[in-house]
Amino acid sequence: MAESILIVDDAAFMRMMVKDILTKNGYEIAGEAEDGQKAVELYKEHQPDLVTMDITMPEMDGITALKEIKAHHPEAKIIMCSAMGQQAMVVDAIQAGAKDFIVKPFQADRVIEAIQKALN
Ligand SMILES: [Mg+2]
């Protein structure tokens, strides 16, 4: 059975890019969220196998959403999507339980490698 992944990013084109990489590699899309608050709600609703979580988003950022999800679902597997210059936030996210991080612009190979590693 295909593993399901929740895609979280405030930029529609980034979600589309990740979705394209995932579907081409046989993953199922559990849902898409454009901010942290919606990500928390969708996680609760769909209990996906993994989440790709953007860091900078309106309403609720990715670090806060990660902590919120982990507080209720300690088993949650979350990979952070970071941009250049966000090293400090990535460290914070890893300490808060993120499995790994991928850096924008995304390389399909690296995205799939991080997901496979996190799921195993
Ligand atoms: Mg963003």
UniProtKB/TrEMBL annotation:
**Residues with 4-aspartylphosphate modification:** 54
User: Which SMART domains does the record match to this protein?
Assistant: REC
Q: Tell me the keywords, alphabetical order.
A: Phosphoprotein
Keyword Phosphoprotein found: yes
Q: Provide the leader sequence positions.
A: none
Q: Which InterPro entries match?
A: CheY-like_superfamily, Sig_transdc_resp-reg_receiver, ST_Response_Regulator
The biological processes this protein is annotated with in GO are: phosphorelay signal transduction system
Q: Which residues form the Response regulatory domain?
A: 4-119
Q: Which domain of life is it from?
A: Bacteria
Q: Which PANTHER family match?
A: TWO-COMPONENT RESPONSE REGULATOR, TWO-COMPONENT RESPONSE REGULATOR ARR22
Name of the protein: Chemotaxis protein CheY
Q: Which organism is it from?
A: Halobacillus andaensis
Provide the gene name from the record: cheY
